[in-house]
User: Fold these one by one.
Assistant:
Number 1:
Amino acid sequence: MGINYSEKIPNNVDISSDRRLQRALEKWQPAYLDWWAEMGPTDFNTNEIYLRTAISVDRDGWADFGHVKMPDYRWGIFLTPTDKDKKIGFGDHEGEDVWQEVPGEHRNNLRRLIVTQADTEPASVEQQRLLGHTAPSLYDMRNLFQVNVEEGRHLWAMVYLLHSYFGKDGREEAEELLERRSGNADHPRILSTFNDPVEDWLSFFCFTTFTDRDGKYQLLALAESGFDPLARTCRFMLTEEAHHMFVGQTGVNRVIKRTCEVMIENPQKDVKEYGAIPLEIIQKYINRWASSSVDLFGSEVSSNAATFFAAGLKGRAYEEKNYSEHGALDQGYNIEEWDGNRLSKNEVPLRNAMNEVLRSDYHADNVKQTVLWNKTTSSFGIDFEFTIPHRRFNRRIGMYAEGFFTPEGDPISEEEFNQNKGKWLPTEEDEAFVKSLMVKCHEPGKFAGWIAAPSKGINDQSVDFDYVRL
Amino acid sequence: MPESINFETEPSKYRHWHLTVDGDRARLDLNVQESEGLRDDYVLKMNSYDLGVDIELADALQRLRFEHPQVKVVILGGVMDRIFCAGANIQMLRSSTHAFKVNFCKFTNETRLYIEDASENSDMRFLCALHGTASGGGYELAMAADKILLVDDRSSAVSFPETPLLGVLPGTGGLTRLVDKRKVRRDRADIFSTIAEGIKGKRAVEWNLVDALAPLSTFDEKVKEFADTMATELPEKSDRVGIALKPITPTANGENLSYKYVDVAIQNDGRVAAITMTLPENATQPETGDAARELGSDWWVLQLFRELDDALLRLRVNRDLVGVITLHTRGSVADALTMDDTLEALKDHWFVNEVRHQIKRVLKRLDLTAKSLFAIADEGSCFAGTFLEILLSADRSYVLNDPDFPVSLGVSQLNGGLYPMSNGITRLETRFLGTPDQVGRILEAAGSFDAETADELGLATSAPDEIDWEDELRVAIEERTCFSPDALTGMEANLRFAGPETMETKIFGRLSAWQNWIFQRPNAVGERGALTCYGTPNRPEYNYQRT
């Protein structure tokens, strides 16, 4: 067959002696490269970009830096090393040995979990494909592409599981992951948030802050799975996901910092005149992306969530570390139920509330992100506090989607919501303004006027390093 | 459960279906209102249905046939994003009594068959446009249509999750239609019925689970193209002018119900219901099809059978303690036979054709009612022609045979084939399966005859004289109400449908035999049964012994 898989595909799953995997990848890998050419970042595929590549699971192996053209990126397959005595940590199978093969009973549910997670990975690459053209600096452009190639690698990781453990069905699902397309009128991505294009960089930073953080929590829950290959795959993915959130959180912070600078330099003036983004507009973008990301956790009360937990397929975030009791049976969880008119406290079985449990952890993590941003405004002596909207605000999925709520979570009428919508969510005018600022800034060390420079570069390089060789 | 369920509705009262008619096209769109189920202990999530949803569907199908006869193609669709229908609501099934579940399934089966009946007999075709996933009963509904179009968005599928998720079967003819109607290969049907998430895209077409795929962005256009093609097979219907189906509303008198032509009297401490059908005296017969159409739903024969239909449904769902239905007629045999002459003479008119098929469906509903049916031919009764079918539908017929109290019965050519049972043959043919010549002899006796002749012809189970009459009836009814109701249901269903199997008999037979058995088993409804556990924190635990 003439392909040196270990050379092309860094891995710790012994591809060179796995005929099943080789056969699957022979067909899928060219299709993946076609997909990348068609749906990955537009242009820039011939430019050398300073990217990190995971080449092994050693302490330093996951971050091997060097200039590389994106289509030549070595998308690898890595699983966190196995722990021989690992036991299932929760649900009805707690204490039994973890599964190294898919148990027939759970095959369909596992495949569904993996496909749903996998579908988000290429989706985000597709959503962000045009952003390179308006990058505010080479540093940011490099970060964008780093995020993109790693989402591509996450797709590989999930496809590895489908190819290795799910036979013909798995191979077909892997093909369909490349056929669905974000925002496509005929075959869109599975989750609706992943069908909205990310057309400006403020949205990109919000996406990586909030939507990638959903990814983190899904991976944390799957990292507990009794299906060991899935758990180990997700654990390795988490190390990469952390960088994406770093890009998001510091990105938003740099936009805030630039606005604060302009506000101090030009008191009593509208920062828009100076090409900076008003703090109120930033808050509206936060509201939009935080609320749409909250939707990704699914319904508040869910049969699937209960099944996944009971079967030991998907646990809670940090199940082992944060909880002393792992059965979660005969326990309740308080939910503020919305019946169309009012909120009332209601206890539901804990297992059925697992989506909500994960969503709560996620929401708390989001709230922590505002600390950095508020530190920035207060360091300028500016009295403005960023907040994360209440989980009931602006929902499209779950029981709260039926009602209308303020960012503080108070129920209001549809009329009242529509009257205030422009205060809480970006208006067309806001979007047009933010987009008007999106002009490329491709000189090393230079930054667009609406965003501050980062405090330091990538991998100890300087800020004016040639992160992208144009 | 509300004290009594009412089957009467009309489009302006629909909560879950939306009926729109435009020329020769109609759309029936499912948009289930979550919190408007018949009871408030379940929520109708994801376009799942309960009996209330299906009552509207059944009503809409009736109205399409009678009120919108010009319609050629009916599109069954939905408005919920990515979901057509998730089938019968699981919480509802879980919290319903066994008797209710069985009657719910029976009604939904009858309604699905009405879709197929309209396609076969009313020049009307059904296209199910699946713009999203159809699972369980949702796909069973789709399979009742002539054609199924599935959106090809790489996500939407058709599925039967009953076995893998709920430990029960698709109870609305799903498995039977899969192999008998759509002729899906049995091994593929086996795979399909054990994958909870179902099958989508090209494979769904390859396996004939659906007829075609359509892209999401041009879905509506494809639906229209498909409907256009289906319409071209049908004759011109634009000259047909519909009638209005007026409401059928009984007045309650204590436990009894009175309609215009039908009365229901509850007797024997609620164990027996006497249904009496009274033919009008000296009713003038319409001379032409248009004249019949002018009478509309006031035409007595149509109204009488609509009333009987409503009465049967109420007895099934609201009166589960009633074990015996005695069937009575009042009127003249001559009037009954004249009615049949009219139904035959005017049969080419669409409206008369619809009336004939309506009577056929009500008679089938009677056959399928799980209560002992005793026809009582006493003085003043008129079991003739169409009304003889009621006697033939009964498990037993008692004919008063006494020269001092003359009883007439009668036969018409309509007994020769207009009203097939679910098994595809007539009640006479089914009755005389072992002596087929007898059918011809009876049909030759066209016209009216007396009780003695009826007995000779084999139409009476028992023909006592006046002296024995009352006591014989009393004892028979009292005895009947004391047997095990389960054994009676099974026994009657076995005996009623002799002769050939059809898709219809298989559907109802398997519903009664398999689905209802599984519905009772601990693996489904025990403390750790799959149906009990679904949606709860517990996973099912099965007893793996095969029976």
Number 2:
Amino acid sequence: MNIIVCVKQVPDTTEIKIDPVKGTLIRDGVPSIMNPDDKGGLELALRLKDAHGAHVTVISMGPPQADVMLREALAMGADRAILLSDRKFAGADTLATSYALSGLCRTLDYDLIIAGRQAIDGDTAQVGPELAEHLGLPQITYVADAKLLENGNLLIHKENEDSVQVLEAEGKCLLTVLASAFDARYMSVSGIMEAYNKEVEVWSADKIDVEEGKLGLSGSPTKVFRSFPKAMKEPGEVHEVTPEEAVELIVNKLKEKHII
Amino acid sequence: MDFSYSKTEQLFLQMIREFAEKEVKPLAAEVDEQERFPLETVEKMGKLGIMGIPVPKEYGGAGGTVQMYIMAVEELSRVCATTGVVLSAHTSLCMAPIMEHGTEEQKMKYLPKLASGEWIGAFGLTEPNAGTDAAMQQTMAVDAGDKWILNGTKIFITNASYANVFIVMAMTDKSKGTKGISAFIVEKGMPGFSIGKPEMKMGIRGSATCELIFENCEVPKENLLGAEGKGFGIAMKTLDGGRIGIASQALGIAQGAMDETVRYTKERKQFGRAIAKFQNTQFQMADLKTKVEAARLLVRSAAWKKDNGIPYSADAAMAKLFAAETAMEVTTKAVQFHGGYGYTREYPVDRMMRDDKITEIYEGTSEVQRMVIAGHLFK
């Protein structure tokens, strides 16, 4: 089985601050990490590899600095790494990004594409589904479990807000994966020792199957009008009480606030 | 001179720091309170290759550097000094002498299982009457034809009750003094070998420190490590390497105490402002930070020399002396900055202070380090 995993290098938003005037992210001095949902996706691919044997290719679009993240993927156990890096991709929104990735995927031989649900910097959750659309693939989003069945199909748990859907997927498809469901492995020491002996292939726009006008800023219909931080909720209260006491407590609280 | 980490080392640092934060830190207080050996962590370290970092690949190791190994000891000790010393004793005191002095058969027999973490290693030199004066060995090894017969007792042995392989020093010819000491590879379960009860310690309370008891212990002939009579040299060389590990442990403890104190002094308010805003805090912390960075450079320099085959005995002694004493100062002041809370076990700085004290004592006391440094200076 050939698996493509899409990964993105993002600023570690747990350490990021927002410029109070401009409303933009202050990225200076903030460490870059592999997007957590993407890392979950890589973990799923590596588990399929461990259990059934697979060739795992990680792909990413970004500046040359993304190299270190792809080395991390190699040290975790990925077999091949490709970075799409070209000035022509600059300024891409999710549509132009997914289009460029689709051009790369079309040049590769694959049975399954795995992407993270969403990236912690943009939080759009659009690139995975859009990539499936560009490639004409069926897609299953919010994947919390995936097992390969004897008939070659995938048995998938798709997590909805209040339920879990169990699906069987036949043939090529694209999954978007939740980090919370796949506790990603650490890089192994021997993987780290090998990571810089392997090649991270850097591909330019000329090398993939795309129309240039649909790349980068010119291929991006999305314009960011304004961004601002969300107001933080106050922390909640925790009471260790019996159900009966809990009902009384909640009712009293609601009365206090004149809700009931 | 290049002070930066290589790309491989940077990737390794990212992994080991994440591992320490997620897997080791949450257990640190419990390991201390319950005096519990962190076996589950050792198993995880084994699977990731952390138990065999500097062991060559052909012997089942990761083929990494001494620099990477000491980075691991530092990062683990930053959150749990017990875990740090488990790795340090295993790597520096057991695997290193086998790598450096073992026969091909011994390397093939022991290193793969040690490097994978399936087996844990330990080292036995200290005896009730042979501490700093290590030449006063009373454990005897007698040649009995096809085997050696060992009799005697070793004390304060790190990892003892969980270890499978021990490097043990014993007298094979008492008339020759230090030239009559030989090194042996002893396995758990060899006839006549038993482990005494664990010591009740001030710090590194999870590290399983026990006596080794040899009562007509039968050790196969092929388990002599190095040539007969070369044991004292092997022990001293092993301790040179071990000191870089313990220096890293002290450095990690110091860094952990710095991290905790910076966080606490920024949060704790007295007289209407964070105590980090007071010049007394700032000046003292600036001095401590400077010392910690100086210790780090000494430690890394010693490791760099070992990696590059340059003599490092004095460097290792200076690194251990300075890092251990710096860490003692840092942890003592960390408790002071935390005030009454620092004296309770609610915060980790009391544990760090208790844990650090041993770094001024084991693998050569600070006084021994001064003897080694002066020995090089005045030779």
